[in-house]
Design goal:
Blueprint: H1 4-10, H2 43-61, H3 63-76, H4 89-96, E1 119-122, H5 128-140, E2 146-150, H6 151-156, E3 178-180, H7 187-202
Parallel strand pairs: 1-2, 2-3
Helix pairs in contact: 2-3, 3-7, 4-7
The structure holds iron/sulfur cluster.
Iron/sulfur cluster is lined by residues 87-89, 124-125, 151-153, 158-159, 183-184.
C-alpha cells in the first residue's frame, strides 16, 4: 500500500519543479525552519514523512543546507550526559532523573562511558587533584560535545573559591557552553540549562 504522499509524487510530470508537500507537511513550505513541525508527528507517520520531506528539501535547497538541521535536530533531542558526580550538586543531578522531574522525557539519558556521551555536566566542586581526570574524561568524549557547569562551585569555585585545592571555575579546564547558577541549583534549574543548551545546538552551524 502506498502513502498519499507517494501517490502524489508518482503523479508528478517529468521535468516539473521539485515536489512540495502542500497541505500534508507545512514544514515543506517553511524552508527557513524546515524541521519544526516534523517533531509533532506521531511515530508511525514519522519515517515516511521524514523520507518524503528530506527528498523534497534536498532537491530544493541542496544537501548542505538540509543535513545540518537534521543533525542539530537529532543531537539536541538525544543528549547523553556523562553519568558522574563530584559533590552535593550531583544529588540534584540525580534527582532530576527521578520520577518527579523525569529528565529523560527530553531525551537526556546518562551513560557511564565517556565514549558514548556528548554532554559533560560538571556538578560539584572541582579540585586540582581531580582536574586531570576531568580533562581525560572530556577528551574521551567524541565530537560534537558540550559542557554544562552546574552550580556555583563548577562555575567559579563557589564557597571554596579561595581554597588552595579548588579550581576557580571549570572553564579553566574545558570549554563551557552553559552555566547554571545556584548552591545547589534545583533539578528544574538543571532542566532549564539543558533546554538552553538545546537552543544553542539548534543554531549550530559547524
Ligand atoms: S555549588 Fe553548593 S551545592 Fe553545589 S557542589 Fe558547590 S557547595 Fe555543593
Amino acid at each position: 500500500m502506498t502513502t498519499p504522499a507517494a501517490q502524489t509524487s508518482a503523479a508528478k510530470p517529468a521535468g516539473a519543479e521539485p515536489y512540495r508537500l502542500e497541505g500534508e507537511l507545512p514544514m515543506a513550505t517553511q524552508a527557513a525552519v524546515p524541521f519544526i513541525e516534523i517533531e509533532t508527528l506521531r511515530a508511525r507517520e514519522f519515517i515516511p514523512a521524514a523520507r518524503e520531506a528530506l527528498s523534497s528539501l534536498i532537491a530544493e535547497q541542496g544537501q548542505a543546507k538540509v543535513i545540518r538541521p537534521v543533525f542539530n535536530w537529532a543531537g539536541r533531542n538525544s543528549l547523553f550526559p556523562l553519568h558522574w558526580g563530584l559533590a552535593c550538586c550531583a544529588i540534584e543531578f540525580a534527582a532530576a532523573f527521578g520520577a518527579r522531574w523525569d529528565a529523560e522525557r527530553f531525551g537526556v539519558v546518562p551513560r557511564s562511558s565517556p565514549r558514548q556521551c556528548d554532554l559533560m555536566i560538571v556538578n560539584g566542586t572541582v579540585t586540582w587533584k581531580v582536574a586531570h581526570k576531568l580533562i581525560t574524561l572530556y577528551e574521551q568524549m567524541p565530537e560534537p560535545k558540550w559542557v554544562i557547569a552546574m552550580g556555583n562551585c563548577a562555575t567559579g569555585g563557589g564557597p571554596f573559591r579561595t581554597a588552595y585545592s579548588v579550581v576557580p571555575g571549570v572553564d579553566k579546564l574545558v570549554p563551557v557552553d552553559v552555566y547554571i547558577a545556584g548552591c545547589p541549583p534545583r533539578p528544574e534549574a538543571m532542566l532549564d540549562g539543558i533546554l538552553k543548551l538545546e537552543e544553542l545546538i539548534r543554531e549550530r552551524k559547524e
